[in-house]
Amino acid sequence: MFNWKQELKYPEREVYKLTIVNNPDVIQGLISLEVKSDHVFMHLLESAPFNKGKNKMYAGVPGNLVTFACK
How is 29-69 classified by DSSP, letter by letter? Predict the structure, then answer.
């Protein structure tokens, strides 16, 4: 598990959370990005514990966060 409070202290980084429409208070995953002149650097990417492993609640959380970063 990453220290997301520490990640928020870097002003050049943007942290985004993934939630679902009817439950915006539960975070499904997080990503930390830094936009550079020629690329986007992904510092951290994490799924919620209940979205990992064989019995995960939602599949594709990391993929959706990476897709968002590439937009």
Answer: EEEEEEE-SS-EEEEEEEE-GGGSSTT-SSS-HHHHHHHHH
Residue 4 DSSP code: H
Q: Which residues contact 23 (CB under 8 A, 6 or more apart)?
A: none
pTM above 0.70, yes or no: yes
Name the band, by pLDDT with cuts 50, 70 and 90, for residue 4: very high
Contact 29, 46 (CB under 8 A): yes
Other beta carbons less than 10 A from residue 57's beta carbon? 14
| CA proximity to 28, closest of 54, 3, 63 | 63
